[in-house]
Amino acid sequence: MFTGIIEELGTIKKISKQGNTMVLSIAAKKVTEDLKLGDSIAVNGVCLTATDFSKEYFLVDVMPETFKSTSLSSLKEGTLVNLERAMSSNGRFGGHFVTGHVDGIGQIIKKTPKENAIYVDITLPKEYSHLTILKGSVAIDGTSLTIFGLTDRQLTVSIIPHTANETVLGLKKAGDIVNLEFDMIAKYLHSFISKDKSESNGSTGISKEFLKENGYL
């Protein structure tokens, strides 16, 4: 489990590809401070397992499903990536629940400077539009952000100078691909409602009206 608060930018030092699999060697300093073999690290929002490490780098394996369904397949040596260690039980929870299980990818449409912020418009895969709401959370390349603009095919987030300087989103430009992970609570609610409807032949005790009445929407 992660929070979406990026700890540092790592650098892809080496990529070993074989078919639809990869081994990534990532240079880092902060996330390796207390790293143990088998620990989870989110790389651009993708939960991966450290298979080897030193104080200056760590290795992770990328399996075929992750290769095909995330932006990791487009990485190049020298590319910067967002890094976050798994959430500690005694730390502050600064973002939102992020699992590191990417739902899909989006493409940056445009970035617009607005006073001290940058508005970022990103394509929204239609099959995930039901998991988004205005002021709701989304993880973009592992960064916890708030949706403040939304259509069926596009979402907009606003990043402050700190986020632009400390994450890869500040470096990316129109046309670049980003990993998207939608809010876990939204996914569970949708799953519960869908299952309840299926099991009761269309009659469900959980509806949008029920959620509104009880303060969930």
Give a nutshell description of this structure:
The protein contains four helices and twelve strands, in the order βββββαββββββαβαα. With 217 residues, the chain is an alpha+beta fold. The mean pLDDT is 91.
| Average of pLDDT | 91
Give the low-confidence spans. none
The secondary structure category is: alpha+beta
Radius of gyration over C-alpha positions, nearest whole angstrom:
18 Å
The SSE string, one letter per element, is EEEEEHEEEEEEHEHH
Helical content, roughly?
Answer: 10-25%
Strand content: 35-45%
Spatial shape: globular
| Count of β-strands | 12
Between the first and last Cα atoms, what is the distance in angstroms?
A: 25 Å
Number of helices: 4
* Biggest β-sheet description: 6 strands, antiparallel, barrel
Q: How do the strands line up in the largest sheet?
A: 1-2-5-4-3-6
List keywords for this structure.
217 residues; alpha+beta; six-stranded antiparallel beta barrel; 16% helix; globular
Architecture overview:
With 217 residues, the protein is α+β, with helices and mostly antiparallel strands. It has four helices and twelve strands; from the N terminus they run βββββαββββββαβαα. The radius of gyration is 18 Å and the shape is globular. Residues 1-96, 97-193 form the Lumazine-binding domain.
